[in-house]
Amino acid sequence: MHPDRRQTMLAGLAAGLSLTTLGTAAAQTGEIVIAGSIPLTGVFAFAGIGVNDGISDYVKIINEQGGIAGRKVRYIGEDTGYKVDQSVAVFNKLTGSNAVTFYYGDSTGFAKTINPELNRKASMIMAGASFATELNDPKAYPLQFMAGPDYSDMISVLLTYIAKTQPGAKIALVNSDTEFGRDPITTTEAMAKKLGLTIAEKIMTPPGSVDVSTEVLKLRRANPDYTIFHGYVLAPLPEFMSQAKQLGLKTKFMGTFWSMDNSLWAKVGDPADGFMGVMPYRYYFEKDPKAPMLDAIRKLRPEYQSAAYMQGFLTAMLFCEAAKRTLAAGKELTAANLKAGLNAIKDFDTGGVIGTPITISGNSVPVGRVYRFDAKQKMMVPETAEWIKVSKEGL
Amino acid sequence: MRIGALKDSYAADQALFDTRVQRVWLAAGALLLVALPFVASDYWLFLACLVGIHVISTTGLNILTGYTGLVSLGQAAFMGVGAYTVGYCQIRFGTPFLLNLIAAGLVTAALGVLVGVPSLRVKGLYLAIATIAASFILHFVFQNWTAVTGGTRGLSIPPARMFGHDLARPQQLYWVILPFTLLAVLGAANLFRTRWGRAFIAVRDRDISAEVLGIPLLKTKLMSFALSSFYAGIAGGLWAYFFRVVTPESFPFVYSIFFLAAVIVGGMGTILGGILGAVFMTLVPEVLKLVVGWLTPVLPNAVALLAPVRTIVFGLLIIGFLIFEPHGLAEVWRRIRRFFHLWPFRT
Asked: Cβ of A300 under 8 Å from any chain B Cβ?
């Protein structure tokens, strides 16, 4: 080969290599993108708006602190109307035009649908609004997690509280006849048996049902000490509680995370007095010297923020923590490394968003506290001082 | 200006596309459809596949509602039957996906005939209520026949396979959905040149007169239900392979309203109307999202702030069409064509 030509080729090769290196360096030092299929309209909009604000605010806070290892974090969310086809469309749109590292999904249906694509891409990890027990399986859903306990764990927190407060208590389960509602039934039965509690009645209500008078009569016959609702946001819980009070039932009503927002019950007022439930996060208005993150939230937003806001906020925090740990270990931000980084989170201080240090075991954060609605204060107040950690071992 | 199309044979008179200009545009459209997977992003291909599935289902409903005059609000539930049939066949028997799709069409068609039986006695709103009832019964079955449907958790379906390759992504499934859509549309267009198709129209226009003319009413109405459900079954089957998770919540009642709205907005009783209606109902919300996205540099939280506005605009667009063009988008398209045919003169 002619020396000049060889030199030109070598120079070209060197230039090409240096450009590739520069490109890789740019990719390594570029912004970290959190994207999301967010239900800003539709039946789940009340939660979607809160989640959207929660993620945005945490991203703002982390960027003001200089980002993650000098890299800025950017959040992009789009509305899905809480429809799986639109959620997948948004996923394709956002991941097609951005180098997405973290994704927020809006439903169990979406989480299940997108799982094969997520595994194929192997470039991002996902969390979301679903706490479905089915998703809490690292083998089937290796790149997903939930920023809280799964629905079975939530019921376990309630049962643990009941077993401690009133050993041998009688319980009634009221579930909506949906995937969401039916989710924890099997584990609840096993857990109740383990804790020596009796399940006196199981009631299944059709989705969207309003007239609950026959169900309340069933409840009257069973006369349980506690009635646990799952698979609802608000309706038909107030109707249930009003009718039960009119019939003179002494049962105490309980719910799970999506029916625990303070503003919902504040509007219901007196009939909601004494309603209890499991909450994986502290409420916006709680003041505690060990909760500086709540002060930061109140500074950003002086008005009340929903339970969904706290969920979005903590999800973004865990996303960023996973990225921080992965980069600190000198690894690339691939899905496998990020999930390993996430699972390395042990006894992590959330700045008081959760009142106890958390550990991510499997795909969830199995911890929660029981709160009670006080109609006089129009506020959810902690029923127990301690945060209850649960596990599925032995079930 | 074009004053007419000269036809010098019966074949030319019967042709679906009777002018050269039409054929040239169709060829250009076909080229565009073939080129799409090579130029479009994942997002646009996903939407193209979804539009294809919606076109098949809307065309099916158009046969029943637009051409035969039988209002149905059970299209989504019929799609569900198709989706579950595909899921069950794929998981239980592992049969080839084409066979599963045809099975989905046939099973749904048989069920459509059953649901269509009341149509001899009731029509209009009464029939709509009967189909709603059928739809709720089917949803109950989806939820409770756990051995077949997987209950509330539903079915997770393995990808369709062809020549040893998985068809899991929009890029691959596009080549399955596109031919099915074209076949469905061409099949429907040809149907209305046959005796059966003409009988559907006769029943729609005046069923008693049709019977006097010797058209067997029950048979014709049931045939229309069967065909419409066959289309829904195929669309549901493709939907199942596209999303690969089928649960009772995958085909809600509002999805049936979506298809009815697509038929009305597109133009009842026209093949083009079914296509335009499905495209409109699927893509306009996405286009509105894009418009909102453009405002983000000016208004940082535009996506969250304008989300409800977008829904209202979509609703207003549908109402606007119903008021200003009751014959639907197909009529708008016809007027545009007429304008160019007669140009420089005006109608």
From this structure: no
- Arithmetic mean of pLDDT, B53-64: 97
Domain boundaries, chain A: 31-149+287-364, 151-279+368-389
Domain A31-149+287-364 fold is: Rossmann fold (3.40.50)
In B192-286, which ranges are E strands? Answer: 245-246
ipTM value, please give it.
0.82
Q: Test A88 with B243 for CB contact under 8 angstroms.
A: yes
pTM: 0.86
| CA dihedral sign, ordered B296, B297, B300, B306 | negative
- Chain A residues in contact with B151 (beta carbon < 8 A): 182
First to last CA, chain A: 74
Report the Cα–Cα distance between both ends of chain B, in Å, rounded: 12
Fold: same for A31-149+287-364 and A151-279+368-389:
yes
User: What's domain A151-279+368-389's superfamily in CATH?
Assistant: Response regulator (3.40.50.2300)
In a domain, B116, yes or no: yes
Q: How many domains does chain B have?
A: 1
**Does a structural domain hold residue B250?**
yes
Nearest to A92 among B42, B243, B307 (CB): B42
Q: List the one residue out of A158, A366, A379, A376 whose CA is nearest residue A252.
A: A158
- Residues of B within an 8 Å Cβ radius of A: 41-43, 45-47, 50, 143, 151-154, 156, 159, 168-170, 243-245, 247-250, 285-286, 289, 293, 301, 303-304, 307-308, 310-311
Q: Do B303 and A77 touch (CB under 8 A)?
A: yes
Q: Which of A79, A135, A204, A305 would best serve as a mutation to test chain B binding (most B beta carbons within 10 A)?
A: A79
Rounded to whole angstroms, how far apart are CA atoms A282 and A192?
A: 26
Q: How far is A231 from chain B (nearest CA, A)?
A: 13
The domain in which residue B79 lies consists of: 39-270
Contact A163, A195 (CB under 8 A): yes
Q: Is the pLDDT of residue B11 over 90?
A: no
Element (H, E) at A198: strand A198-205
- Find chain B residues with C-beta within 8 A of A56's C-beta: 301
How many Å apart are CA A290 and CA A70, to the nearest integer? 27
Look up residue B233 and give its two tokens. 């079954």
B244 contacts on A by Cβ (under 8 Å): 113, 116
DSSP state for residue B135 in the 8-state scheme: H
The closest CB to that of B307, out of A40, A109, A178, belongs to A40
Rg for chain B (alpha carbons), in Å? Answer: 21
Average pLDDT over residues B204-212: 93
CB–CB of B25/B17 below 8 Å? no
B338-345: which pairs have CB atoms within 8 A and are 24 or more residues apart? B341/B1, B341/B2, B342/B1, B342/B2, B343/B1, B344/B1, B345/B1
Q: Does A106 touch chain B (CB under 8 A)?
A: no
> What proportion of chain A, given as a percentage, has pLDDT over 90?
79
- With beta carbons under 8 A apart, name residues in chain A contacting B303: 40, 77-79
Beta bridge partners of A255: A277
CB A254 within 8 A of CB A366: no
User: Domain for residue B336, yes or no?
Assistant: no
Most A CBs within 10 A among B140, B153, B258, B287, hence the mutation to make, goes to B153
- pLDDT, average across residues B184-192: 95
Chain A with chain B: Cβ pairs closer than 8 A: 80
With a cut of 80, say whether residue A9 has pLDDT above it: no
Q: Which pLDDT does position A3 carry in this prediction?
A: 45
User: With 0-12 CB in 10 A as exposed, 13-18 as middle and 19+ as buried, what is B320?
Assistant: exposed
B327 belongs to a structural domain? no
